[in-house]
Design brief:
Blueprint lengths: L20 H8 L3 E5 L2 E4 L1 H20 L3 E2 L5 E3 H7 L1 H4 L5 E4 L5 E4 L4 H11 L8 E10 L14 E11 L2 H21 L4 E5 L10 E7 L5 E5 L6 E3 L20 E4 L6 H8 L7 E9 L4 E9 L6 H8 L3 E4 L2 H8 L15 E5 L8 E4 L5 E6 L10 E2 L18 E15 L1 H5 L3 E3 L5 E3 L1 E8 H11 L1 E2 L2 E2 L10 E5 L5 H16 L4 E3 L6 H11 L3 E5 L1 H4 L3 E6 L5 E5 L3 H15 L4
Parallel strand pairs: 3-7, 15-17, 17-20, 27-28, 27-29
Antiparallel strand pairs: 1-2, 4-6, 5-6, 7-8, 8-24, 9-10, 10-21, 11-12, 11-21, 13-19, 14-15, 14-16, 18-19, 21-24, 22-23, 25-26, 29-30, 30-31
The protein binds one RNA strand of 77 nucleotides through β8, β16, β21, β24 and α11.
Length: 579
RNA sequence: CGGGGCGUGGCGCAGCUUGGUAGCGCACAUGGUUUGGGACCAUGGGGUCGUAGGUUCGAAUCCUAUCGCCCCGACCA
């Protein structure tokens, strides 16, 4: 490809709308353009990267016995009503009607469609296991699209669905995908971690996320350096502090705390450790038709993990109660809630609460707190659950070492679905004994554009993108320093032709631009290798090869340039990690 | 949806407080000089100031409504 012909409108300035590095560079390198919030055009360079990622994905899926098919993006509402998700999925589902007023939606995921297909076409255990996948456009009316390609409303996803005859089969399929995903991201040269995850709206038992480590990521993960434990903080659990305090239980006492409401203020005012406090929060658990209040107790230094809480409650949504509801339940304004004396309301204590001795909590009365509160004595704890958020420093539940936390971008997610969809939709087969059984399913997704963006978040410097070789849009750019110098152009053209013949993916920067412009564009777009042809080295019959990542340059004889490049490319293609 | 911010040539911004009929840099076009890290000179084209109402002799500027976009939170690959 000639740079003069390449449709890659690079931008010198940073577009105001872009906050994150990947978003900025994708725009500036002329790879994407936005057409509406969360909806992007992929220009030729981006398309090449996406296709390379897809190719890697296909190869790894195929290796595990996956078969590619293509499902529709437009789904009839019937299928979603059948699975029950027409109501559950909520506003995120793009819904539309056809001319006959029939309901449809744009698929945000494809469990319904694939389950429908399989229930009609597969009837015997002999046809299992079945691994079917596609690379398809998904539509999700995200509450807030953001960070460019990281969270779009339309994006391509590879989704594979596994159908097995039993749990053991699912386990095998799940492990295959776990391995395949690790291979995909390794080949994309990404630094990632596999973490235990919450399975969220898709449902099911076990699930793992593949998280690319990046400061700008939306996911927070907790992990242990000492053992293999790693989990999304939405799910992460820590070892419990079981040290029973020997301190004698003191007499319950009401103290005046005028205008002192927050944990920090109370701790300060009464000179107690926040760990001694019982944080009392009023939530509303919201289901399809109804909602009810829940009182949640935590140690004062803890935050609620709403995902855990919601899972525990099994409700659809969760919201902090408004001031009126708080007053209704506690009889006091916000800031003075406590479990002592509360009646007729569901009370859930975090696992750490029962061991608090002589604690402090609100008195359900404006401007008063209780001190020397002892769970079990001063209020009854019937429901205990792990609902606090794990933080760095908590003990690993596996080995007891201090956990660390970091942020990352979730690029892949694998789920064991079990029989959730097959049962809801009556998808069954006959087993060896002729018994009707629901398929045991799994689903496995990779966000393709997000993977591209994550690669940029992890591979860039202040000049631009540094593509890992396996997913670079082109492997080499040839830059004649001065396109008007005939000799330089001649050598450039010859090398360009030779490279094409050798199967190297190359761009020739034949533009009549100053060297600085070409160099800067080359750095911005992020070609892993650059061949510079200038008068200096040409005098000695040499050209310069420069590695984008390290900045290392090496003069090579013109005749050896192609062979050298091939060698460098080969080395980077198989390496699997960043150079 | 709650909180914050922004809509002015393709991009980045000024002008708005204190109304007087739109400007700067980059990009673009033409000519010339330049050419190893985003050149210079000259000339030129391009904007219903997001949209709709209103106030006013007069609105980018003031008022109202509305749409869009970005950032922080609830959603997820």
């Amino acid at each position: 490809m000639r740079m003069s012909q390449l449709f890659a409108p690079t931008l010198r300035e940073v577009p105001a709308e872009a906050e994150t590095i990947s978003h900025q560079y994708l725009l500036r390198a002329g790879m994407i353009r936005k057409i509406a919030a969360g909806i992007y055009i992929y220009l030729p360079l981006a398309q090449r990267v996406l296709q390379k990622i897809e190719r890697i994905v296909r190869e790894e899926m195929d290796k595990q016995g996956g078969q590619e098919l293509l499902l529709p993006a437009l789904h009839p509402a019937d299928l979603w009503l059948e699975s029950g998700r027409w109501d559950v999925y909520g506003k995120e589902l793009f819904r539309l009607k056809d001319r006959h007023e029939r309901d449809y939606c744009l698929g945000p995921t494809h469990e319904e469609v694939i389950t429908d297909l399989v229930r009609r076409e597969v009837s015997s255990y002999r046809q299992l296991p079945l691994l079917l996948y596609q690379i398809q456009t998904k539509f999700r009316d995200e509450i807030r699209p953001r960070f460019g390609l990281i969270r779009g409303r339309e994006f391509t996803m590879k989704d594979l669905y596994s159908f097995d005859k039993d749990e053991e089969g699912l386990e095998v399929s799940y492990r295959k995908m776990y391995h395949a995903y690790s291979e995909v991201f390794r080949r994309c040269a990404l630094e990632f971690r596999v973490v235990e995850a919450d399975s969220g709206a898709i449902g099911g038992s076990a699930s793992h996320e593949f998280v690319v480590i990046a400061e700008t990521g939306e996911s927070e993960i907790a992990y242990c350096d000492n053992c293999a434990y790693a989990a999304n903080v939405e799910r992460a659990e820590a070892a419990r502090d079981v040290t029973e305090s020997a301190e004698p239980r003191r007499e319950l006492e009401l103290v005046s705390t005028p205008g002192v409401t927050t944990i920090a203020e109370v701790a300060d005012f009464l000179a107690v450790d926040p760990k001694q406090m019982i944080k009392t929060l009023i939530y509303l658990a919201i289901d399809k038709e109804e909602y009810y209040p829940v009182v949640v107790l935590l140690r004062g230094d803890r935050e609620v993990n709403e995902v855990k809480l919601q899972n525990h409650l099994g409700c659809l949504h969760l919201a902090l109660a408004d001031a009126d509801t708080v007053r209704e339940i506690t009889g006091a304004p916000v800031g003075f809630a406590g479990p002592v004396g509360l009646k007729d309301v569901r009370l859930i204590a975090d696992v750490e609460v029962p061991s608090i001795v002589n604690g402090v909590c609100g008195a359900n009365r404006a401007d008063y707190h209780w001190v020397n509160v002892n769970p079990g004595r001063d209020f009854v704890v019937t429901e205990v659950a792990d609902i606090h958020k794990v933080v760095a420093g908590d003990k690993c539940k596996v080995c007891g070492h201090a956990l660390k936390t970091t942020r990352g971008i979730e690029v892949g997610h694998i789920f064991k679905l079990g029989t959730k969809y097959s049962e809801a939709m009556g998808a069954t087969f006959l087993d060896e004994k002729g018994n009707k059984k629901p398929f045991v399913m799994g689903c496995y997704g990779i966000g393709i554009p997000r993977t591209m963006a994550a690669a940029i978040e992890q591979n860039h410097d202040d000049k631009g993108i540094i593509w890992p070789m396996p997913i670079a849009p082109y492997q080499v750019v040839v830059v004649p320093v001065n396109s008007r110098v005939e000799e330089q152009m001649k050598v450039a053209e010859r090398l360009y032709r030779d490279m094409l013949e050798a199967g190297i993916e190359v761009v020739l920067d034949d533009r009549d631009e100053r060297a600085g412009v070409k160099f800067n564009d080359a750095d911005l777009i992020g070609f892993p290798l650059r061949v510079t042809i200038g008068s200096r080295s040409l005098q000695e019959g040499k050209v310069e090869i420069k590695k984008r990542r390290t900045g290392e340059t090496m003069p090579v004889d013109i005749e050896e340039a192609v062979a050298t490049l091939q060698e460098l490319i080969r080395a980077e293609m198989t390496k699997g990690v960043s150079l």
